[in-house]
Design a protein that fits this description.
By secondary structure, the chain is of the alpha+beta class. About 70% of the residues lie in helices and about 10% in strands. It is built from 5 helices and 3 strands, in the order H-H-E-H-E-E-H-H. The protein has a 3-stranded antiparallel sheet. Strand 2 and strand 3 form a beta hairpin. Helix 3 crosses helix 4. The longest helix is centred in the first third of the chain and has 37 residues. The chain is elongated, with a radius of gyration of 35 Å. It starts with a helix and ends with a helix. About 5% of the residues are buried.
Length: about 150
C-alpha cells in the first residue's frame, strides 16, 4: 500500500513537471516567433512597410542603378520596398520610411560616388581599342618610311 501511494505520487510529480516544462517551451517559442515577425529589415513588400503606420517617402531609380542601391540600403539597415513605375519604362520607385531619410541620403551619396569613380576608370576594352589604334598609326608610319627609303634607295 505504501509503495502504491509512493509510485502514484512520483508519477504525478513527473507528469506535472513535464507539463510545466512544455508550457515554458511553448511560451518561449511564441515569444520568439512574435519578435522575429516584427523585426523585418531590409527589402519588404509595400504592404508590410505600410503596416508599420509611418509616413513613407519614395525616390525614382533606373533599373541599372537598382542593384547597387539595394546593396547600399542593406548596408545602412533601411527598410524599403521597390515597385515598378508604370508611367515610365525602366524606372522603379523605392519606398522607405520618412524617418530613415538621413540613412537614405548617405546611401545615395555613397552609391553615386562609387558609380562616378567607376565610370571615371576606363574599361579594359576601351584601353585595348585605344592602343590598337595607336599601334595601327605607328605601323602606318613605319610602312611609309620604309616605302620612302625603298624609293630613294633605287
Amino acid at each position: 500500500m505504501f509503495s502504491d501511494e509512493f509510485s502514484k505520487k512520483s508519477i504525478y510529480i513527473s507528469v506535472t513537471g513535464v507539463q510545466g516544462t512544455l508550457n515554458i517551451i511553448e511560451a518561449a517559442m511564441k515569444y520568439y516567433l512574435n519578435s522575429t515577425s516584427n523585426s523585418l529589415k531590409g527589402r519588404m513588400s509595400l504592404r508590410e512597410l505600410n503596416k508599420q503606420n509611418l509616413q513613407l517617402k519614395d525616390i525614382p531609380l533606373y533599373s541599372k542603378d537598382l542593384k547597387g542601391m539595394e546593396k547600399e540600403l542593406k548596408r545602412y539597415g533601411v527598410d524599403y520596398a521597390i515597385k515598378q513605375d508604370l508611367s515610365q519604362k525602366d524606372t522603379y520607385k523605392v519606398f522607405f520610411k520618412a524617418k530613415d531619410i538621413s540613412s537614405i541620403e548617405l546611401a545615395l551619396k555613397n552609391y553615386t560616388s562609387k558609380e562616378f569613380s567607376q565610370n571615371k576608370k576606363m574599361n579594359i576594352k576601351d584601353i585595348i581599342l585605344k592602343y590598337k589604334e595607336k599601334s595601327k598609326e605607328i605601323n602606318k608610319d613605319i610602312k611609309e618610311k620604309s616605302l620612302t627609303r625603298d624609293i630613294e634607295g633605287r
